[in-house]
Design brief:
With 75 residues, the protein is mainly α. Helices cover 39% and strands 0% of the residues. The protein has 2 helices and no strands.
């Protein structure tokens, strides 16, 4: 029997960034049609996968391998 993946909340603290970084981030998210949270979490997932970490998905089991889930870096 397959193990069920638990979906949990992820609370991130308020962070401060430079105005230029914020503009670039908002521009990228608008072009991708993603929220800032989705974009940042997908980018983090890509970095984790690239470093060899294994996990069942980002927002739901198997969604990371879903072709409809666009990369956070215009890929």
């Amino acid at each position: 029997m397959a193990r069920q993946t638990e979906i949990v909340n992820l609370m991130l603290r308020d962070n401060r960034v430079t105005a230029g970084f914020r503009r670039a981030l908002f521009d990228a998210t608008q072009r991708e049609g993603l929220s800032v949270n989705e974009f940042v979490l997908r980018a983090a997932a890509e970095k984790l996968r690239a470093s060899g970490r294994d996990f069942p998905g980002v927002f739901g089991p198997g969604d990371f391998g879903n072709p409809n889930m666009r990369r956070a870096n215009n890929g």
